[in-house]
Design goal:
Layout lengths: L1 H26 L16 H14 L4 H10 L4 H10 L7 H14 L5 H77 L1
Helix pairs in contact: 4-5, 5-6
C-alpha cells in the first residue's frame, strides 16, 4: 500500500515537472520586432503580429475602420486585414457579410495554423453573429406583419361591432313596432 502511494506521488511530481519544463521552453520564444510587416505564414511571430493588429484596431470606430478598409488593396495580406477590420460589433451587417465571404475565399489559400486560428477566432464568431442578426431581421419582419394583421383584424372587429350595433338597433325598432301593433290589436279586440 505504501509502495503504491510512493509510486503515485513520484509519478505526479514527475508529471508536474514535465509540464513546468514544457511551459518554460515555450515562454522563452521571443519575437523581435513585433511591429514588423504583416505576412501570411504559420510562423509564431507572424501569427502574434496578426493578433497585435487585431487588438490595435479594435478600439477604432466604424468610420475610422471604414477609411482604413478603403485604403487597402486586393492582395492576401490586405484582404486578411479587411476581414479583421470588419470584426467589431459596430460593423454594419453588409460589411460583416462581405468580410465573411472574403474570409471564406481566403481560407483555402492560408497556411494550416493560420487557417485554424482564423476559423476559430474570425469565421465561427462572425458566422454566429451573422446568423443572429439574420434571425433578428426575420423576427422583426414577422412581428411587423403580425402587427399589420392585428391592426387589420382590429379594424374588422370595429366594423363588425358597428354592424352588430346597427342590427341590434334595427331589432329594437322592430320589437317596438311589433309591440305597438300588438297593443293596437288588443285594443281593437
Amino acid at each position: 500500500m505504501r509502495i503504491s502511494c510512493v509510486i503515485t506521488g513520484i509519478l505526479l511530481l514527475g508529471g508536474c515537472q514535465t509540464l513546468t519544463m514544457q511551459h518554460d521552453s515555450s515562454s522563452q520564444y521571443e519575437c523581435a520586432g513585433i511591429e514588423a510587416k504583416l505576412t501570411i505564414s504559420d510562423e509564431p511571430c507572424d501569427i502574434l503580429r496578426w493578433f497585435d493588429y487585431r487588438f490595435s484596431t479594435d478600439h477604432l470606430s466604424w468610420p475610422e475602420r471604414k477609411q482604413l478598409l478603403a485604403e487597402l488593396g486586393d492582395n492576401k495580406v490586405d484582404s486578411f486585414k479587411k476581414v479583421i477590420l470588419s470584426q467589431s460589433m459596430d460593423t454594419p451587417y453588409q460589411a460583416r457579410l462581405r468580410a465573411q465571404n472574403l474570409l471564406n475565399e481566403l481560407m483555402p489559400s492560408l497556411p494550416d495554423e493560420l487557417t485554424k486560428l482564423a476559423g476559430i477566432l474570425l469565421q465561427q464568431p462572425a458566422q454566429k453573429l451573422l446568423e443572429y442578426e439574420s434571425a433578428l431581421v426575420t423576427v422583426g419582419k414577422i412581428n411587423s406583419r403580425q402587427s399589420q394583421t392585428i391592426e387589420e383584424q382590429r379594424m374588422r372587429v370595429e366594423e363588425l361591432e358597428k354592424k352588430v350595433k346597427e342590427q341590434h338597433s334595427q331589432i329594437e325598432q322592430l320589437m317596438k313596432i311589433e309591440t305597438t301593433l300588438s297593443n293596437k290589436d288588443r285594443q281593437n279586440d
